[in-house]
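Q: Trace token order:
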Amino acid sequence: MTVRRRGFTFPLFLFASSLAAFGILGCGRFDAQPEPPKDASRAGSGDKSNTESLSGTGTKSDIAAPSASNVAFVPKRVTGGGQAMGTIVDLAAFTTPSLSEDAITQALREAFEEIRRVEHVMTTWDKDAVLSRVNESAGKAPVVVDDETLSVIEEARKMNERSSGTFDITFESMHGLWKFDQDLDPHPPDEAKIKDILPFVGNKHIVIDREKKTVFLDKARTKISLGGIAKGYGVDRAKKVLDDKGIASFYIKAGGDLFARGHKPDGSEWSAGIRDPRGPSESFFAILPLSDHAFSTAGDYERSYLKDGKRYHHILDPRTGHPATACRSVTIWAESALIADAIDDAVFILGPEKGLALVEDTPGVGAVIVDAKNKVWISKRLEGKLRVTREPTDGI
């Protein structure tokens, strides 16, 4: 196997590591179980993996009782979450001497409700939502937009410019052309249909009037969606809720987007695993320690199909209207979940060389790329942090 770091090739030395200690996390794997404090008798033999999904905004906690009443404080893991933004949201945090289980439970509920609020504000499924109104008015008139949504749209436009047009919220104009969701149709659309819609895709069709707080799409067939950035933004908002509550050890996971704050009670970092893009769904080829950072993976394996020996998937290159072909997976490490959410798709489309240039030029961002030929590329900021445990599986 060969690993490329910033384009340089060197032999890989395998790291001995037991994967059994890690819990599963969407596109990766997450370790959510603390080690027992040295001065406590037991620190929770019944601790559950964070793969448990909870209905609504409920929470649950588990820990074994200490053997004596005078032992040192033992942190308790409290979990919460539910369904939002088309995925399962998992949250977990630890009690402290000053933050009780009830206080943590309430904080997790509020953080989850913040994600639900972002979903309600930035959806395109509700015809009365602001983005739906922007799309309905395309080619007709500007629409007044709330400050929050306007700010996220502006962030998306900036990322479009920095990524050579590869991150583009007008990809929604191609909605229904390719079918990878519940409407799965394993047949590529006619090339003529792709060429017909491409003139309506592009940042240039979004007109923002900051003074009037309006957004206008200058072509009737142009549509926008924040689906490529809203989950990351929601995770960031939930993070703020928990930070404001003074919680120093927690994680938030929404599908493939997550953020981990601080360290586990034993002082060790959280750990996230990077899925093998051609291996079984629970297999991982690398492990990344995670503290005060977000982690997001874009892969061609989740929503895809094979036809005539070729893989078609949902990550579309807005410049061509076709699925991007330069990578199999891209994992981004960043201080902001919004940035990680946006950059993973851009790097996936750009490919390893141009993608790593974007990563290195973005403060605080790192990347792990499995390219179309199964080579692993590691950005400079992750050198010495990432533990590659084995070669990714090859395949179509």
Summary: The domain at 2-121+229-388 is CATH 3.10.520.10 (T-fold). The two ends are 17 Å apart (CA to CA).
